[in-house]
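Quick sanity check, SpdD protein:
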Amino acid sequence: MFTPKYPPQDTAPRATATAPTAYTPAPVQPSAPAPVPVAPVSNRPTVQLTPGSALALAAGGGAVVLVVGAVLVSLLLAVAITGVSVAVVAVVLRLLIKDLHKP
C-alpha cells in the first residue's frame, strides 16, 4: 500500500547518436473523446452514526471541552495569583528598604 510505484523500465536500446538526426513529427490522428474519470472506490468501511452513538459522541466532545476549559482557567488563575503575590512582595520589600534608609 505504501510502496512506491515506479514506471516500467524502457527496454528499447538507447541509440548513441554521433550525427544529428532530423525530427519527424508523428501524423495527426483524429482523437476520440476522453474517457470520463471514475471516482475510486474505497475499501474502508463507512461510519454510520445511530442517534445513540451521535449523542454519546456529542456528550464526549462536550466533556472534553469542559475539562480543557477547566485546565486553562486554572492555569490562568495560577498566573494571576502568582502575579499578585509578586506585586505584594515587591511593595513590602520597597517599604522595608525605605525604612532602613530612614535616619
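Posting the structure with no commentary besides this: Residues 51-100 form the longest helix (50 residues).
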